[in-house]
Amino acid sequence: MGTGAPSRSIRGSLIMVVMLITTSSLAIALGINQYFDYQTQRQDLLEQLQTLAKLTADHAQDTIVDNKPALETRQLRALSVYKFLQSAQTYQLDRYTQQLNFFAGYTRSGVLPNTFTDSQLRALKQPRITADTIEITSEISFEGELLGFSYLRISLDTLNQRLWNNLYQVLTIILVASIFALLITLQLQRRFSQPIDTLISLVQQVDLNKDYALRAPTLEVQELDFLGNAFNRMLSRVSRRLEKQQQAEQEIRQLNQSLEDKVTERTFALKQANSELLQTLEKLHLYQGQMLEKEKLHKLGQMVAGIAHELDTPLGLGITTSTSMQQALSELKHSLEHGELSQRRLNQFLSLSDEAFNILTRNLQRACQLIESFKHVAVDQCSEQDRTFEVHHFIDEVLLTLKPKLKKSRHIIEVICDQELTITSKPGAISQILINLVLNSLKHGFKDISQGTIVIQVTMDKDYLTVIYEDNGRGMSQEVKAQVFSPYFTTAKESGGSGLGMYIVQSLVQQVLGGKLELETEPEQGIRLKMVIPLADTETNQPSVADTNQTHLLS
């Protein structure tokens, strides 16, 4: 069953539809009838009022001409026979001022009289109809001369009360008709719902007991009987298909049993073979991991040895300078104790001290710079965490750790990179890539070459960092190029090559950094290695050619 809105039963929907149609039809029909009846009665009352106003104006001609307001009052009082009349007044027109003056009037008890201006009386020649009253005036004239106005006001209370009485009758009719329609609807829905309930009960029994031998009985309603017959035919087909399915399942079970026996035998043999293979792979992975770690430690050891050699010079100069200063200070102290200190000797000591401290400062700064660069590179190589760093400064630090290797040769490394390019990536992997590539060029590419050039170009496009590494060394043949990224492949076994340098580069680019690399090389044409590395987060855009700076490191 669905989990949406709850379903609605047929009987409830049938009752609701019939009741809605019945009540809405009656309400609309009776409402329209009452509206037009009310409008007709009000129009008839208005026409009667207009006729009465005309008669009142005709009778007032003589009383105004003879100036008999008392007679006019009696005539107006005679209109009290009309129960709906509230007020009747006669106004005389002054011949000289053309002002309307009150002449005579009648107002029913309990009703407040009205007072009007000339303009208001003249405007009431067109009847004014409100919710409770109708007001009208009629001109009083004699031989074409305007004598005044006759004013009448009637109440609509009787008409409104009749409207409410009719409304109560309409509501009573609607209620009675709704009850009658409800009774008929209940009888009708029983006729349809009973066969449907029979079918529903049958479906529930089939679903609950999985008994497909049940059949629907003959139903009184023709359409539902057709539905029951269709359901019986469906049950017959389902029953036949289940029998065939049971037979097929029995055959499949027998076949599966025989297959399981064969699979069990072959699985046991396969497990033994897999176990032996897994053990071999574990040993191979362990050996490969040990070789990779050994290679990393070997390069790190070479780096440490080179840094230690580089530190010997500044530290040696510092020790020599401090020893000289200590001896000069001892001599100065002896001269001071024996009163032999002269101005000239003091000036010599101060000059020597200034020069010695300058030498100490420069060499200590040089030693600190070497240690700091080595520390950054060593920490990055031991960590696989992402870090945000400036690319140009980072490459300088990596190359600084290789200076002992470069110092023995005349090779040049040229870095083309924006000074402000900052990225977020894994610096340890990038530093290992650069170190392996440079050492590979020094050992293989520049073999028997006294002076070579290495170019490292770094650019960024959107979220990708592109590193192009080039050297003008000996290059590779197509046979060597095809195997250069294979583990343990080397062309310098006689000189102790492990064959893991370029394999480590490929693993770091593709597996650790998730990038791609392309190698282009020809014999005696050097190599060009292009690496495209995706970046998770960047802080600067791709630098333009005009913004790039070139740095040359000479050994």
Describe this structure in words.
The protein has helices spanning 10-65, 69-77, 118-123, 157-209, 222-337, 343-382, 391-401, 403-407, 427-445, 478-483, 501-512, and strands at 85-93, 100-107, 128-129, 133-142, 145-155, 387-390, 412-418, 422-425, 453-461, 464-471, 516-521, 527-534, 537-538, 548-554. By secondary structure, it is of the alpha+beta class. Helix 1 packs antiparallel against helix 4 (157-209), helix 7 (391-401) crosses helix 9 and helix 9 packs antiparallel against helix 11. The protein starts with 9 loop residues before the first helix and ends with a strand.
Shape: elongated
Helix content: 55-70%
Task: Indicate the structural class.
Answer: alpha+beta
Instruction: List unreliable stretches of 5+ residues.
Output: 538-555
Question: Largest sheet, if any?
Answer: 6 strands, mixed
What's the helix count? 11
Distance between the termini: 80 Å
Instruction: Please tell me how large the radius of gyration is.
Output: 58 Å
Major sheet: arrangement of strands: 11-12-10-9-7-14
Structure summary, number of beta strands = 14
Secondary-structure element order, as H and E? Answer: HHEEHEEEHHHEHHEEHEEHHEEEE
Strand content: 15-25%
Task: Return the average pLDDT rounded to an integer.
Answer: 77
Short structural summary:
The chain is 60% helix and 17% strand. By secondary structure, the chain is an alpha+beta fold. Pfam families: HAMP (PF00672), HATPase_c (PF02518).
